[in-house]
Structures are given as structure tokens and as C-alpha cells.
Amino acid sequence: MTHKTIKQLLIFAAFITLVIIFSSCTKSNNWPQFRGPYFNNVTTGQNLPVEWGKDTNLLWTYDFEGLSWSSPVIWGNKVFITSAVQVKGEPFRFFEPRPQPEAAADTARAGGERPQGPPPGSAIPAGQERSQQAPPPPPPPRQPDTTYLLEIYRWEVTCLDLNTGDLLWKSTAYEGTPRTATNRGGSSYANETPATDGKRIYAYFSTIGMFCFDMEGKLLWQKDLGAYKTLNDWGTGSSPVVYQNVIYQQVDNEESSFMVALNAATGEEIWKAERDEKTTYSTPVIWKNRIRTELVSTGKIARSYDLKTGKVLWQMKPGGEMSIPSPVPAGDSIYLSNAGGRENPGYLCMVKAGAEGDITPDPGTVANDWVQWGNPQAGTGNPTPLVYNGYVYIVAGRGGEVTCFNAHNGRQVYKEKTGRPTGCWASPWAAGDNIGLIDERGLTTFIKAGASFEVVVQNKLDDRFWASPAIAADKYIFKGAERIYCVGL
Q1: Is pLDDT larger for residue 140 or for residue 402?
Q2: Counting Cβ atoms within 10 Å, is residue 279 exposed (0-12), middle (13-18) or buried (19+)?
Q3: C-beta separation of 280 from 230 below 8 A
Q4: CA–CA separation, 440 vs 399, rounded Å?
Q5: Angstrom distance (rounded) from CA 237 to CA 425
């Protein structure tokens, strides 16, 4: 065999390998963790619907027990969800989402108290104008909620068949009394999205710990990471991240915050890094760039961790008010944001690969050698931004407003409303030429990807949606408050 022939065969083999890899990526059903395999909420599925409803492209539904705001995940032909089923105690009240002023909505989201005094626009009774010289007395201190001590829950992991919606198995992680309270106005004891590597499924419930099951539902190990008070008892939202046989879990709260790395096969602790943070809700991400692979988290301080040791590689103060959106990796850039609030409209910035030390821009500036650009007026809401084909899209927490920025320089491209959606907690996603978003009333809106704003279509499912969808090659899995919905052609 000649040298030329060998070279041609090697080139052909490399080509076939690339075809197989590309094919497996575009046709894979795997959506293994929060916001997908690459933490970016971008699907490569080629046969996904853009229209659905009660009688259109709705393949199956599944009514699940309990209450949870975690998102579903997919591996192969299996769908995994988590929930906390109340066995004993006073039932949770479901509040009905309703439109409210943006500032008031932001205050409520941040867990803040509403301003005291008469409602905006109301008149002060005659004769009292001059008598109200002194400010009203402060509200009485909030009494701690102890009702949870009389309650019993069953924390479950459920596995469904992706194609039929049939129940494959349901396993109990723990049954007993919660160790912390949860806000009964809208939170749950199962907010964190599970993660899987195809060998095991990992479910974190902040009040009881981390649980590992095999793919057939057998409990393999569990790890108590502590139970801590959170801001106004809203609980946590940081989901586990699994990478190269290690689970990374962010545990931020009002008492003792930390990041921990666990052996995925045994649950043994590999490292633990204390965090000077209070309650946060964002999920850390694995960022693969040309310099290294690192673990990046947000908070009042955004940090990058060495995967093997937990050492902080770089950090910055990103601004904003609440750490709810997650970081978004995109090649050699990563986009960081914090949600806004009553006094702060929300922050968004882009960081370049290779940073070290404190990279916070100097006062009065928004960029430096490592921060390509920053926008303290971006208006970031609760949903994690979407970075797609050169643009960054952010969705407001209320009102259906979408803002598009140039991903390279941060310049605003447009700010438009999609109609009259209510609150939006789920992250937007990209599918082909479209950007999708779903509000809490189940109204899904598709807009055209790119520099021009155009609403393509709107669809409706009758449920309450706070979870982000999981996306297979040709199906969407939406998780409402009452049931799972599979949408496909």
C-alpha cells in the first residue's frame, strides 16, 4: 500500500468520524441537565414543531404527583423528573399569576417587602396631610414558619418513556419531615433540576441532600450536604452539574454557602470551597474554552473554579441585584448576568477566556482586558439569557419584553414586546431559525432569530410553567405544575 493510499484512507476515516459525531449530536435525545448538554439552551433537533395546542402536535401528557419547579431532563428514550409529594400537612396554596407593575413584580421576586403606606394613586384622608410628619412604624418582625415541623413529604424521582409517556419507574429518595421551611406562596421542596451522565441520575433536594440512582431507579448512594435557611424561605434553585465523573453542587443560603465537588460513583467529597454569598438561585456551568475547562458560577461575586481543586481562578463583581440567571458559555466567551430589582435594572457582560485574579472593571468603567463589555442597564430578568448566532437575547420577568444585543460588542439591537404574556421564569431557547419562550400561563412565543424582531407564532398549554423545557431530537418536554407535556410532530 502506497503512502498516498494510506493518506487517502486516513482522510476518509476522519471524514466518516466527523459525520458520525455530527449525526449523533444533531440526532441525540440527550438533554442531560439544566439548559441542555452545553448549558446554552440551544437544540440541534431538525424536526421540532413550531405549533401546538390541545389538539395539535400534543403527543402525550402525564399527571405527576407533588409540587416541584425543577425542569425535566432526557437521556435516550427516558425522561426524568423530580417532585416533593405532601403526605401529611396543610396543602400548599397555588397563587394565580396576574399582571402587576414591573417595579412591584421585581420587589416581590427579590423577596423584598412591599412599600408601606397607601397604594399608589390613592388619596390621603383630609386632615391627615400635616399629621404624617413622622414615617410609619416599621412592620413587626416576620414570625418564623414552623408548620413544616408537622408535615411529611415524599421526595421522588420519576422516569417516563419519551415516546409514549408510560411510567417506567418511580423511586423514593426520602420520606419524612423537611428540615427547613419553604415559602408557601409559590416555592416548593423540589426546585433543583436533576442531572444524568447516562450511567446514573443525580437529584439534589436542598433540605435533604443529594441522591444517586442507577438508570433503572435503584438508589446507589446519598449525601447530606446540610439544610440551611434561605432568603424568605424561598428555598434554592441551583441544580447539580455532572462532568467527567464528578458532580458539582452550589449550595448558597443565609447561613453557610459553599461549592462542593463529589465523586459521581460514590458520593465522596473531592473538594469544598466556601463562598461569601447569601441565597442565590443560579446554576454553575462548565466552560470549555481554548485555554482550559473551568467551573463558573454567579452571585454577588462571579467566580471561576479549578475543576480538580476548587481554587478560584478569577472573579468579578457583576452588579445586578439577584443571582437568578445562570452563566452562558459560548466558545471563548462567557456571558454573566444578575437579575434586576426595584432599584437596579439588571446587569449583563461578556468575559473572555484566560482571565486570572480579580477582573472587576474599575469604578466608572464597564470593560477591561478581560471583560469585553458590560451593560449595567441591560434589564436582565429571572430567565437566563440566550446566546445564539452572534446575538444575546434577554427576556423580562414580566410583560413579555425581549431585548436583543450584539454578542460581540454589547450594543442593543432592539427591545420589543411579544404581546401580553404574564411572568416569565423559564429560560428562552433556540431551535433552528427561531427563538422560543414560554410564560407562566403556558403561552409559548416563537420569534425569528437575528437582528429583526418578528413574532412567528404563539401557542398555548393550560398549566402553570416555571420550568425550562427539555428538548430531544424531535420532541419538546414541558413540565407544568400539574403534568408533563410531550410536543412533537
Answers
A1: 402
A2: buried
A3: no
A4: 11
A5: 12
Q: Per residue in 240-279, pLDDT tens? A: 999 999 999 999 999 999 999 999 999 999 999 999 999 9
Which CATH fold would you assign to the domain 27-92+146-488?
Methylamine Dehydrogenase; Chain H (2.130.10)
Residues 6+ apart with CB under 8 A from 91: none
Q: Distance between CA 416 and CA 452 in Å, rounded? A: 10
Q: Looking at the DSSP assignment, which residues form a beta bridge with residue 416?
A: 402
Those residues whose C-beta lies under 8 Å from the C-beta of residue 456, and which sit 6 or more positions away, are 50, 434, 446, 447, 448
Amino acid at 243: Y
Q: Give alpha helix (H) positions in 147-282.
A: none
Q: For the segment 178-210, what is each residue's pLDDT rounded down to a tens digit?
A: 999 988 777 899 999 999 999 999 999 999 999
Torsion over CA: 407, 410, 413, 419 (sign): positive
- CA 450 to CA 442: how far, in whole Å? 24
Q: 112 exposed, middle or buried (CB, 10 Å; 0-12, 13-18, 19+)?
A: middle
> With a threshold of 0.70, does the pTM exceed it?
yes
Which residues are CB-neighbours of 432 under 8 A, at least 6 positions away? 46, 48, 449
Residue pointed to by grid coordinates 413574532: 455
- Assign 26 to helix, strand or coil: helix
- The helix or strand, by DSSP H or E, that contains position 104, with its residue range, turns out to be helix 102-109
If 0-12 CB within 10 Å is exposed, 13-18 middle and 19+ buried, where does residue 91 land? exposed
CA dihedral in degrees (188, 384, 103, 460; nearest 10)? Answer: -70
How far apart, in whole angstroms, are the C-alpha atoms of residue 183 and residue 188? 7
Q: How does DSSP classify residue 144?
A: P
Give the integer Cα–Cα distance in Å for 433 and 413: 17
* Residue 412 in grid coordinates: 442593543
Strands (E), 114-166: 152-161
In contact, 65 and 83? CB cutoff 8 Å: yes
Judge whether 438 and 40 are in contact, CB under 8 Å: no
The set of cell numbers assigned to 358 is: 480579580
Amino acid identity for residue 211 in this structure: F
Q: Is 17 helix (H, G, I), strand (E, B) or coil?
A: helix
DSSP 8-class letter at 408: T
The predicted-structure confidence for 288-323, as pLDDT tens digits, reads as follows 999 999 999 999 999 999 999 999 999 999 888 899
- Rounded Cα gap, residues 216 and 480, in angstroms: 24
Q: Which of 275, 396, 378, 370 has the alpha carbon at shortest distance from 319? A: 378
List 405's β-bridge partners, or say none. 392, 412
Q: Tell me which residue of 109, 128, 105, 108 sits closest to 118, measured CA to CA.
A: 128
Neighbours of 50 (CB within 10 A): 16
Q: Give residues with Cβ within 8 angstroms of 246, minimum separation 6.
A: 261, 262, 263, 264, 270, 307
* C-alpha distances in Å from residue 152, one per residue of 177, 183, 221: 5, 16, 22
